[in-house]
Amino acid sequence: MLIKIDNLDNVFADEEKRATLGKLNAFDNEHCDFESKVIHLEKIIAQKSKDFDDVNLELSNRTSKVEAYFEKLEKTKVVLERQLARKVDDSKAEFLKEINHLRTQLENLKGKRVETKLDNSSILGKPPLLNNERDQLLKQIASLESKLASQDICSCQNEYHELRTLYNALKVKFDSLNRKK
User: Where would one find coiled-coil regions in this protein (predicted)?
Assistant: First the structure.
């Protein structure tokens, strides 16, 4: 019986060994699966890291291009502002020159004044028509000068054209009065 007990011990030991070997094989299989998953995940991480670096580099390049574009726009803006300032100054000088020319011509008209029926006061005591127009022209010249001081170029151009038209009309009336005499 002793032999059978020893044999039984060997059978139990063999079964324990087999069970342990089975567990060890299962553990080794799980370990291999785990290692292959880790390797696979490391490859994915490396690829994602490379992709991130590529995107980061592309973003950096685009950012540099945008910054260069904005610097160019800023320089262009400065150049255009300078050109506009020069044009405003030139226009202002031109308007002042025209105003002075109109004043000179108006003063010449005053100096060449001829006595006419229009120069006499009317029955109602109103000032003569020609003097009213001359006064209106002087007011418009003053208005144009004040607008030039505020650099309102568009309204100055419009008013200049109106003033020029009024001046021409006044000159025609004056010339026609001189011809009648």
Answer: 70-119
d(CA 144, CA 94): 12
DSSP 136-173: HHHHHHHHHHHHHHTT-HHHHHHHHHHHHHHHHHHHHH
CA distances from 79 to 83, 86, 178 (A): 6, 11, 53
* pLDDT (0 to 100) of residue 34: 92
Environment class of 98 (CB within 10 Å of its CB; exposed 0-12, middle 13-18, buried 19+): middle
Residue 122, Ramachandran bin (φ over 0: left; ψ between -120 and 50: alpha; else beta): beta
Q: Where are the domains of the chain?
A: 2-180
Q: How far is CA 64 from CA 57, 59, 72, in A?
A: 11, 8, 12
